[in-house]
Amino acid sequence: MIESVRTRPVAPVAFTHAKIVHIMAGSSRVRTAEGERMLTAGDAMVLGGGVWCEAVPLPQVRAWTIYLDQAFLRSHMLWALPAPEQVLPGLHPAGWDGRALFFRPGATLFAQTEPVLRRMSTISHETGPGAAAKLMALFAQAVEVALPSLVIDSAIPARTTSGVGRLTALPVTSEARRATELMLSDVARSWRLAEVAAAVALSKSQLTRRFTTEFGVSPMRWLTEVRTTEFARLIEESVLSVEAAARTVGWADRRVAAAWFRRRFGVSPTQFRRQPAPACIGEAPCVLCPDRRCLRAV
């Protein structure tokens, strides 16, 4: 589970796990074996394991990506969705072979889902008893929100807020949303809580209270999580040094970056970079591969 803000093209790459990509803001041109498509805020893309995709942000895109076992995804959706004739064409898992799927839950539904995704991100690095169960429960909540966008003519009742948890029931207020957009606009900046609060016309305590209610964490902890996910992306996808990657996301001290990284992933940035990279597909050497060599597509 990772949130990313991308401004540079992503070379063609295929991951072992299936993934669900939620476009939260901005736009990106993506290319898969099925062709090329423009994705904007509110669009979603599902790819099976081993299915390649490349992306070109135009000029920037913010996305949440869930990586999960393909068999689990298929079985969960078979359980959650109604009969194939009640599902939009091509979206029922009974006939899915892993190829790219596209649908549009919409920006409003994503706004409801994002607190769940953020909570999943904070739990995904946990290894203690119950961590997997928490993740599955949160994933089920996210699916519940998205379900109406997958069916024909409201084949299932629209989701209501009665009987659901705080994370998915609350609307997103403009002040908290504006605060996230402000910090995302310049992640490398040394943001201070007072500065962000003043920009959205709230006191520090008001912003912290609203932010924590809607996103489950304080503004500065939220910024740390965003920096950690972007730092991980740079370590995995670029040739920047650890120091340079840390500075790019706003950490002048490599030790601070490494501490937050280890807290989430359990290894140092250097160890993470040395791990085997996913198989890449493309004409030129891909920065995802430690040895700068790709596995070619036929």
CATH architecture designation of the largest domain: Sandwich
Mean pLDDT: 78
The total of beta strands comes to: 7
Helical coverage, percent range: 40-55%
| Helix count from the secondary structure assignment | 11
Structure class: alpha+beta
Q: Which descriptor suits the 3D outline?
A: globular
Strand content: 15-25%
Work out the radius of gyration.
19 Å
Which homologous superfamily in CATH is the superfamily of the largest domain? Regulatory protein AraC
Number of domains: 2
Q: Compute the separation of the termini in Å.
A: 30 Å
CATH topology of the largest domain: Jelly Rolls
Poorly predicted regions: 154-173, 276-298
Largest sheet: 7 strands, antiparallel
H/E topology pattern? EEEEEEHEHHHHHHHHHH
Kindly describe this structure.
32% of the residues are buried. Strands 1, 2, 3, 4, 5, 6 and 7 form a seven-stranded antiparallel sheet that branches. The protein has two domains: 1-168, Regulatory protein AraC (Jelly Rolls, Sandwich); 172-298, Homeodomain-like (Arc Repressor Mutant, subunit A, Orthogonal Bundle), CATH 1.10.10. Helix 2 packs antiparallel against helix 3 and helix 8 packs across helix 10. With 298 residues, it is α+β, with helices and mostly antiparallel strands. Residues 154-173 and 276-298 have low confidence and may be disordered. It has eleven helices and seven strands. The radius of gyration is 19 Å and the shape is globular. The protein is 41% helix and 18% strand. The protein has helices at residues 70-80, 107-123, 131-146, 166-169, 174-185, 193-199, 204-215, 219-237, 242-248, 254-265, 269-274, and strands spanning 2-6, 10-13, 18-32, 35-40, 44-47, 53-68, 101-103.
